[in-house]
Design a protein that fits this description.
This protein has about 375 residues and is α/β, with parallel strands linked by helices. The chain contains 13 helices and 14 strands. The longest helix has 15 residues.
Length: about 375
């Protein structure tokens, strides 16, 4: 692998010193007390880094996108995201709490507003989620910050990753020595909740590192605390991200697939042991404990492809261009009438975000309902 080191604020991470990220996401439910409890518990469980998400519903999806089934019943997905919108001061407080613990604060923005609010907090690093891998405007914005960036690669093909990296490289300020805050770490991910361990194809870590010359890690949505993290360490991961919760019965969107404290601590201990061993030793141990067939099914063949459990999400989870309101036949499409959003549930898929500037000023050839994707045939 060409690059097996990643630096955050001068601290080096590698497969011999893996960065372990506790993804709190929105498990705090907008409650600062619970968020503080999550930080404390994740720190005690051995996390190096605590991750949040800055959510503005309008940056992510259209109100017509559909419903999600929660324990309390069906609710509009857009409304669920609206409930998670918070003032930037919340994240400033969380950053202070995390850094007082001597840990790294990490956060995911989902649009330009949240990215700029995050930049104002002066983070040491930043994360781009898998669905935003093709969000051209956000990639360019974050590249301009010259921060170490984790780029998740779930529900993507090799060409999608190549295009994202080329967009981020358009800013010449990102071409700096590797020991500065400029690197990109690709996080191999399977965009399914939960993701079957056998879908992970962990040998792809070596493939991604070789093809793109980037350090690599894993954003793991599988349920087992050891299989993917330990085998990923053997395959060269220098960062492992896992969702963290206080209890899987909590009401957070990702809590059912997150690790509670005891399981997270078990994962950390297993990864720390694996760091000290060579890959062959790790594999021999995992073969003995879990059986060669299971281990080999998780390791896969190393060819980057959509995993079976995420194929149906391709293009629907990713960004595409949607009408923000009804657009009449013959109407000129303006910037304020479109946005690059996740398609998700019941809307049609539009053109990729890279086409935004090219369709502005074009005339609608037919009526486009609010929320629907905008395609070539609509122009």
């Amino acid at each position: 692998m060409k690059n097996e080191k990643f630096f955050i604020n001068g601290t080096e991470f590698s497969p011999r010193r893996v960065l372990i990220i506790a993804e709190l996401g929105t498990s705090h439910g907008a409650d600062p007390v619970k968020a503080g409890e999550l930080i404390e518990a994740a720190a005690e469980a051995g996390a190096d880094c605590i991750k949040f998400q800055i959510v503005y519903a309008r940056e992510i999806l259209h109100p017509n996108t559909g419903e999600v089934v929660l324990p309390e019943g069906k609710i509009k997905l857009y409304d669920r995201f609206r409930e998670l919108e918070l003032d930037p001061s919340f994240f400033a407080d969380m950053k202070e709490k995390v850094e007082k613990k001597g840990l790294i604060f990490l956060c995911t923005p989902f649009g330009l507003k949240s990215a700029r609010e995050l930049k104002d907090l002066k983070p040491k690093c930043i994360k781009i989620a898998s669905p935003e891998l093709n969000y051209t405007a956000l990639l360019r914005e974050i590249a301009s910050y010259r921060l170490p960036t984790f780029l998740s690669t779930g529900v993507s093909k090799l060409g999608d990753i190549e295009e994202a990296l080329s967009i981020m490289a358009e800013n010449p300020d990102t071409t700096l020595p590797e020991t500065t805050n400029s690197a990109i770490c690709l996080l191999h991910c399977v965009t399914a909740y939960p993701a079957p361990e056998k879908d992970y194809n962990l040998r792809v870590l070596g493939s991604l590192g070789a093809v793109f010359g980037c350090p690599v890690g894993i954003s793991d949505h599988s349920l087992d605390p050891e299989l993917v993290p330990v085998l990923g360490t053997a395959m060269g991961a220098l960062a492992i991200e896992k969702h963290f919760c206080l209890s899987r019965s909590d009401p957070g969107l990702d809590d059912p697939i997150a690790l509670p404290p005891a399981s997270f601590a078990r994962m950390v201990a297993s990864v720390r042991r694996a760091e000290k061993e060579c890959p062959d030793e790790i594999l021999a141990s995992m073969y003995r404990e879990h059986g060669r067939d299971l281990v080999e099914s998780i390791l896969g063949d190393g060819i980057k492809r959509l995993a079976p459990s995420e194929k149906a999400n391709y293009e629907r989870t990713n960004r595409s261009i949607h009408a923000l309101r009804d657009i009449k036949k013959g109407e000129t499409i303006e910037k304020q009438t479109i946005a690059s959003l996740r398609t998700e549930k019941n809307l049609s898929i539009g053109l990729p975000p890279s086409w935004e500037e090219r369709i502005i000023g074009r005339m609608a050839s037919r009526f486009i309902p609010a929320g629907e994707g905008i395609r070539f045939e609509d122009l």
